[in-house]
Amino acid sequence: MKLFIFHTPELTPTDKVPECAIAVDVLRATTTMATVLAAGGEAVQVFSDLDQLLAVSEKWSSEKRLRAGERGGSKVPGFDLGNSPLDCTPEVVQGRRLFISTTNGTRALQRIQDAKAVLAAAFVNRAAVVQYLLEKQPETVWIVGSGWEGSFSLEDTACAGAIAHSVVQQTKLSQDELAGNDEVISAIALYSQWQDNLLGLLHLASHGKRLLRLNCDEDLKYCSQTDILDVLPIQQEQGVL
Ligand code: 3SL
């Protein structure tokens, strides 16, 4: 297995596709997606465009669908939900499909949707994603951070590092053997330094600070938890996990 980390969708190659690609948006899209599926949501369907989301979801009855829209950290007016995983309780999501569009996370998923296997990862479901990699042994794996509007984000790289760190620990591979690019070595170093204080890391991150200004302290606490959800968001058909 060779692992490559790309910090943003924009830095991700466009001329090839890997066997397995993993989108990460710790704050908060992929944490929310994992939470919805763990809470009994029927599926998660991602859109970069809000109008397209509204048109496609219109074909579903309102009992069977939830529309989640986030821009700049806030809920899009008229949508059922924003992008807080804390709103995705079993009472709200069970048996319903989440139609979701967020600023960066859904774009990262769309960027990798042609890979053979497409997953969504966050700290909350890191172990389930690592388990999949260990079982399937894909030859090439890309982890793509969502970043923020094209720039690097600390929390997505730390989560990519958490996945790589766990693969190294559970296999006989050295970091050198696993790493397809230098980003893997630096992501493991970042995660190793902060693994006992991920909430502290989220408080340092620029998007963490943006969410704190929006009073999302509890979201940061939730998103900083590792391995609490045994769920594997995996693409079933294009754009649907
Ligand atoms: O950018 C995104 O996709 C979102 O996850 C951002 S937010 O955490 O909902 O503000």
Architecture overview:
With 241 residues, the protein is of the alpha/beta class. Helix content is 40%, strand content 16%. The protein is built from eleven helices and eight strands. It binds (2R)-3-sulfolactic acid (3SL). The site of (2R)-3-sulfolactic acid has 13 residues, from loops.
Total strand segments: 8
- Would you tell me the overall average pLDDT? 96
Distance between the first and last residues' Cα: 24 Å
Shape, principal axes of CA atoms:
globular
Cofactors, ions and other ligands in the entry = (2R)-3-sulfolactic acid
The portion of residues assigned to helices is: 25-40%
- Which class do the helix and strand fractions yield? alpha/beta
Oligomer: single chain
Radius of gyration: 17 Å
Order of helices and strands: EEHEHEEHEHEHEHHHHHH
Biggest sheet character: 4 strands, parallel
Question: Count of helical segments?
Answer: 11
Q: Taking strands numbered 1, 2, ... along the chain, how are they ordered across the largest sheet?
A: 1-8-2-7
Low confidence ranges: none
Strand content: 15-25%
What is this structure's SSE topology?
Layout lengths: L1 E5 L13 E5 L4 H10 L4 E4 L3 H8 L7 E7 L2 E2 L14 H4 L3 E5 L3 H7 L5 E5 L4 H11 L3 E6 L8 H17 L4 H4 L3 H13 L3 H7 L1 H8 L3 H7 L18
Parallel strand pairs: 1-8, 2-7, 2-8, 3-6, 4-6
Antiparallel strand pairs: 4-5
Helix pairs in contact: 5-6, 6-8
Bound molecules: (2R)-3-sulfolactic acid.
The site of (2R)-3-sulfolactic acid (3SL) has 13 residues, from loops.
